[in-house]
Amino acid sequence: MRTVMVSGIHPDLNAPIPIYMRTSAFVFSNIPIIGGMILSAPTPFNTFFFQWLNQTYNAGLNYGNRNASSTQTSAQMFTSYAIAVTSAIGMAAGLKRGLAPLMRGREGTMFGSILNSIVNFGAVATTSAMNCVMMRSGELTSGIDVKDASGETIGLSQTAAYYGIQKTAISRAVYNFPIFFIPPVLVAMQAKAGMHTRPGVKLALEVSNVAFALLVSMPLGCALFP
User: Fold this and answer.
1) 174: exposed, middle or buried (Cβ count in 10 Å: 0-12, 13-18, 19+)
2) What's the confidence (pLDDT) of residue 189?
3) Other CB atoms closer than 10 Å to residue 101's CB: what's the count?
4) Residue 57's closest CA among 81, 37, 74?
């Protein structure tokens, strides 16, 4: 019970972290986001909407789990959010345009699904890391609290902030790999086994594939660093 309670309490603010900003809510929050990104038709509107939705969620996750011993104004946070969202949409659109000749005529095929995953992974992995850096940039300028073994604050450190943000940003990029490459492989295997005979069954399996990939990705990303 204590572990569950502590996981939902911000260590600096000593206040509950909003439910959707907790890492324990990662899988449930991302099923509609990643599912829509992978399963919806790769139209410009869908690309724009789901990249915006994903980066908005990432911004909330990064803000909810920030080091609150540093300060950042609302204007700085809004600027960081705007840069992260714009970068994600721009990168996804650029990758889609670059891969368009390869994608033409291959929509709905295994190869087309992998190309779509490459586009989404490239955009999301890069900008998820950027989102983390931008939303927590205030820590780099003001530093974060450094504590001794007894938990007493002994000073502020920009170096500690740098290493903390660097490791978080790397984990944010890495955990996106299973999310975008496990589902297409599972879909191909299920289709080959004749499991997609009914639209309802096909949709249920595709959503389950996304949920499974999310369950794999978060522990993998968190386990990269102590």
Assistant:
1) middle
2) 85
3) 8
4) 81
The amino acid present at 176, given as its one-letter code, is: N
d(CA 46, CA 120) in angstroms, rounded, equals: 12
pLDDT in tens, the chain (226 residues): 666 676 777 776 677 888 888 878 888 888 888 888 877 877 888 888 888 898 888 888 878 877 776 666 777 778 878 887 787 778 777 777 776 676 666 665 666 677 777 777 877 788 788 878 877 788 888 888 888 888 888 988 999 999 988 998 898 888 888 888 888 888 888 888 888 778 888 888 888 998 999 888 888 888 888 7
Boundaries of every domain in the chain? 2-222
54 Cβ contact list (under 8 Å, min separation 6) = 33, 34, 37, 88, 124
Backbone angles phi, psi at 156, to 5 degrees: -105, 145
The conformational region for residue 155 under phi > 0 = left, psi -120 to 50 = alpha, else beta, is left
